[in-house]
Amino acid sequence: MKPLHYEVIALSTFLVACAGQSALVLQIGQNYAGAATALPLPDGGLAVSTNHVVQLIDGRFSVFSKSAGTLLKTMTAGAFWTNAGVAMPPGVFGASPRVLFDLDSQRWVAAMVDVPANELSNRFLLAITATDDPTGPWRGLAFVADSINGYFADSPALGMDTNGVYLAADMFDGNDTAVGATLVSIPKSGMVANLPSIEGRTSFGLLSYNSYGAILQPAVTVGTPSSAEFVLSVGDLGYDFAPHSNLVAVAIQNAAAPGGALLDYPADISVPAYSVPLDASQPGAPDNIQDDDARISATVYRVGDSVYATHSIETDNRAAVQWFKIDALNRNVLDAGIITDPVLDLYYPSIAANKDGVVVLVFNGSSLSNFISSYAMLGEPINGRLQFGSKVLLKQGVASYRTNLTSNPWGNYSAVVPDPADPTHFWALTMFASGPTSWGTQISEIIAAPLELSVFLMGTNIQVAWPAGAIGYQLQFKQTLSATNWASITQAPVSDNNQIRVSLQTSGRSGFFRLIQ
Question: Does the predicted TM-score (pTM) go above 0.70?
Answer without folding.
Answer: yes
